[in-house]
Amino acid sequence: MKAIVYLFLFVGVLLSSCAPKTTESETLEDQMQALETKLFGEENEYNPDDAVLLMSLYLQAADETENDSLVVEYLFKAADLMMYHAEPHQTISVYDRIINEFPVSDKAVMSLFLKAFVYDVRLSDTMHARQTYQDFLRLYPNHPLVPDVEMSIKNLGKSLEELVSEFESAN
Predict the structure, then answer these.
(1) What is the predicted pLDDT for the residue at 167?
(2) What does the domain layout of the chain look like in residue ranges?
(3) What integer pLDDT is reported at residue 25 of this predicted model?
(4) In sequence order, which residues have a C-beta less than 8 Å from that of residue 28 and are 6 or more positions away?
(5) What is the pLDDT at residue 129?
(6) Residue 41, pLDDT score
């Protein structure tokens, strides 16, 4: 357990050290906006290194701001990038932070769903994925994502070949 804590601390320090220091003329917000435009704008110059940098800037901004609506937004954007550019347990920890610190936010609902998705797809941890999906159903029984959650539970642990076979036999 101590090793996991040290790993998270190490990754956190590593990510924070990767973030460029802001100058008076270029604020953290300016840096994030420039990278967002580069990565997701019309030019769509997607570069994994820029995505990792933007992820660390979001985390830095979340830690530095006191506006809760901005904090949850920064954390959610960071987790979105972390989904494919960070260790899965680190992504889960950001989703947990959203869920625990902002439980009534719409982002908390989506974070619980995505946390289950990370367990399922990134970690192939069907036990934790099932538990997290079931938590979602218990907490949000009337949410529009319920059919997706139920389908995800039904398909836990199935290979791509099994899913294709089931789809073909259903048609």
Answers:
(1) 81
(2) 2-170
(3) 46
(4) 22, 57, 60, 61, 64
(5) 97
(6) 76
pLDDT of residue 61: 95
What per-residue string of b and e applies to 113-131 under the rule 16 or more CB within 10 Å gives b? bbbbbbbbebeebeeebbe
Number of H helices, E strands in the chain: 9, 0
CA distance linking residue 149 with residue 113, whole number of Å: 8
Contact of 62 with 78, CB cutoff 8 Å:
yes
The CATH fold of domain 2-170: 1.25.40
Contacts 24+ apart (CB under 8 A), 82-89: 82/55, 83/114, 83/118, 83/122, 84/51, 85/48, 85/51, 85/52, 85/55, 86/11, 86/52, 86/55, 87/11, 88/118, 88/119, 88/122, 88/123, 89/4, 89/8, 89/123
CA atoms within 13 A on the CB side of 22: 14
Angle at 86 between CA 158 and CA 16, to 5 degrees: 160
Maximum separation of any 2 CA atoms in the chain, in Å: 62
For the whole model, what pTM was predicted? 0.79
Q: CB-hemisphere CA count at 13 Å for 1?
A: 0
Q: What's the average pLDDT block by block, 10 residues per block, for the chain (171 residues)?
A: 39 46 67 88 78 95 92 96 94 98 96 97 96 98 97 90 82 78
